[in-house]
Write a structure and sequence with these properties.
Elements lengths: L1 E8 L2 E7 L8 H4 L24 H10 L19 E2 L12 H9 L16 E7 L9 E5 L7 H9 L3 H8 L9 E5 L12 E6 L8 H22 L6 E2 L2 E3 L11 H22 L5 E2 L2 E6 L2 H12 L11 E3 L4 E2 L17 E7 L5 E5 L8 E5 L3 H13 L5 H11 L2 H4 L8 E5 L22 H4 L2 E5 L15 E6 L9 H16 L3 E6 L3 H8 L6 E6 L1 E7 L9 E9 L2 E3 L1 H5 L7 E6 L20
Parallel strand pairs: 4-11, 4-12, 4-13, 5-7, 5-9, 8-10, 9-11, 14-17, 17-18, 19-20, 19-21, 21-25
Antiparallel strand pairs: 1-2, 2-3, 6-7, 14-15, 15-16, 22-23, 23-24
Helix pairs in contact: 6-7, 7-8, 9-10
């Protein structure tokens, strides 16, 4: 790696590295513009003129001004991260001589840097193809902030008898970058097939993870794991803290294996360095790393990347790579790649000031976020939406027309993929009825929300810091509270049906159908709920007359609980535990306020 810039962080100087350089000078700043360029591999800037394997090429350059012995394109940096924080270099226990000082001034390598100086043994690293249940060591996996426990992480939880799920419900599960949790299996030594444990690291928001952040999270998780191992072993000798590891962050919306694997190994190196710096290195060391992958194609990719790891100067001579791909029980083969159905595909749709929509696919299989712009006519769209609002009957033509107008052509074919979809929306884009859109070429002739799961996530600057997660499996179902509005038999039936579904899944359900406001509010604050289901009348800016100077007239938005009594965001905000899911089936309560009041209109009551 080549130092590219420095920054100050918490009173310390951090050096930021790039793979696009010669170890001393970045190519971006060290190559004059307009000149033809040749490259030498694995040679630092000050040693270019004394690199013996290139002498014949240098002679041709001096004599003819050209050579075919050196490449004119930069060495490939695929798999090497950009913008990472370089670890501190080992202190040199000697004074530099005159030759060393000259080399330093010219950007060359000092005499001691060309001598073997590593006293630490190499870290053994291998790739295994098989089921994670057969991992040699505790398994490190990643968790995106706000996600549920799915895919390989769920398999880990199953083998640990739900211990990950317990922590997730208690609200201290990793999510943000540089958070981690260690769960060791005390019975692993006695049961040959028992999973040894898990190390879960936070990956931040889906689609935003960088190589440097992955390295930082791996470092934090590896340190917590190493400390836990050292505390469980006798202190009279150095403990080994071997670690199995999934190909973290390479699933939906993640990084390429070529980028993630070096970042993970870099985190292991940083963790061992931190242990040495703190003095704990004498008690424990991460000396073995096993990458484990279920599918053969990805395991082979990881093995290939591992063979090229010496191309990264920071990782060079730190790992002893096992060339043979290990085979474990439970391994799988496939003809083509298809992402696990456990992942919710995230699509960010942001309305812009000019009325256009900006689409960003946050979960892809390509390690990138694809951005598309879709021009729209707001006035035209509002006419269709207003017509749908005023007509209580479903109009398939409106749903199909809005689909054609709103969805970019490059995304329309994905509507038939049956993926569960998480829509990340802002105030402007949330006004559109995305769940009801329908592709006219779809043989099922059903809206998006009927064919697969569709959830909304609203981007907002107003939110609760550090919400407390509910404990247990409690559910509150409210259906058609009595009021001066007409009764809603459909809401009552919905609440009854939802109650039965949750009870079949062993949830503790508090059912309040046709109950008054006092009973509903009392139950709301009686305990924490994982799910809150509301079905009934809803109002938006409903005028409530005042009866005295102390109770002036006002407008209210919320669910109707009785005569001039409402369940509003004020009451929900006072709940100590934040439900994992709140399902509201009330008219007008999906309305989104426009940032510009002049643009507010009935079509925003989605």
């Amino acid at each position: 790696m080549t130092t590219e810039q420095l920054r100050f962080n918490n009173g310390q100087i951090e050096f930021i590295g790039t793979a696009r350089g010669d170890g001393q000078v970045p190519w971006a700043g060290g190559i004059p513009a307009g000149l033809k360029v040749w490259y030498m591999r694995d040679v630092v800037h000050g040693d270019l003129a004394k690199h013996r394997p290139a002498f014949e090429a240098l002679q041709e350059l001096l004599e003819t001004g050209a050579t075919n012995r050196l490449p004119t394109t930069a060495p490939a940096t695929r798999g090497l991260a950009e913008g990472i924080v370089l670890p501190p270099e080992d202190e040199v226990e000697r004074f530099p001589n005159e030759r060393d000082l000259v080399a330093a001034a010219l950007g060359g390598s000092a005499s001691w840097s060309r001598r073997p100086q590593r006293t630490e043994p190499l870290i053994d690293v291998e790739v295994a193809h098989g089921d994670l249940a057969y991992a040699k060591y505790p398994v490190m996996a990643g968790h995106y902030q706000g996600d549920s426990i799915v895919s390989a992480e769920k398999a880990l939880d199953d083998h640990l008898q739900g211990r990950l799920r317990e922590r997730h419900r208690l609200g201290y599960y990793p999510g943000p970058v540089e958070t981690a949790e260690v769960v060791l299996n005390p019975d692993a030594e006695r049961s040959g097939l028992a999973l040894k444990g898990a190390v879960i690291i936070g990956l931040g928001a889906v689609g935003k993870l960088s190589y440097g952040e992955l390295t930082a999270s791996v470092t934090r998780g590896a340190l917590k794991y190493a400390v836990a191992v050292s505390e469980c072993r006798p202190s009279n000798k150095r403990a080994s803290a071997p670690l199995s590891c999934l190909l973290i962050s390479t699933g939906a919306g993640g990084l390429l294996v070529e980028d993630a694997l070096p970042a993970i190994l870099r985190g292991i190196v940083h963790a061992n360095h931190a242990l040495n710096e703190s003095g704990l290195g004498a008690r424990v060391r991460i000396d073995k790393v096993q990458f484990i992958e279920l599918y053969e194609d990805r395991a082979l990719t990881a093995a290939h990347v591992l063979q090229q790891i010496d191309r990264d100067s920071e990782l060079r001579n730190r790992f002893a790579v096992t060339e043979q791909l290990k085979s474990l029980p439970g391994k799988r083969f496939r003809v083509r790649f298809e992402e696990s159905q456990g992942w919710w595909q995230r699509l960010q749709i942001l309305g812009r000031k000019d009325g256009s929509l900006r689409y960003t696919t946050l979960t892809t299989q390509l390690g990138r976020a694809d951005v598309r712009l879709q021009a729209t006519q707001t006035a035209l769209l509002d006419q269709f939406i207003e017509q749908a609002i005023q007509n209580s009957r479903s109009d398939l033509n409106i749903a199909k027309t809005l689909f054609e107008l709103l969805i970019p052509n490059t995304l329309k074919n994905y509507s038939q993929a049956r993926y569960d979809l998480m829509l990340v929306l802002n105030d402007a884009s949330a006004a559109y009825p995305w769940e009801l859109l329908q592709d006219r070429y779809d043989a099922d002739a059903k809206p998006l929300a009927v064919k697969s799961g569709v959830l909304r996530q609203l981007t907002t600057r107003t939110f609760r810091e550090g919400p407390r997660a509910p404990v247990g499996n409690a559910v509150l179902v409210v259906g058609d509270p009595p009021s001066r509005f007409v009764e809603l038999p459909g809401a009552k039936q919905e609440a009854e049906h939802v109650t039965k579904q949750f009870e079949r899944s062993s949830f503790e359900v508090t059912e309040l159908i046709r109950k008054d406001a006092r009973q509903i509010i009392t139950a709301l604050f009686a305990r924490g709920y994982r799910v809150l289901h509301l079905a009934g009348h809803g109002v938006y800016e409903y005028p409530v007359p005042g009866d005295s100077a102390n109770r002036p007239a006002k407008t209210v938005s919320g669910m109707v609980l009785g005569h001039d009594i409402f369940l509003t965001p004020i009451e929900v905000e006072q709940m100590r535990e934040v439900p994992e899911l709140v399902f509201i089936n009330c008219c007008h309560l999906g309305r989104i306020e426009a940032e510009n009041p002049d643009l507010d209109d009935p079509t925003r009551r989605n």
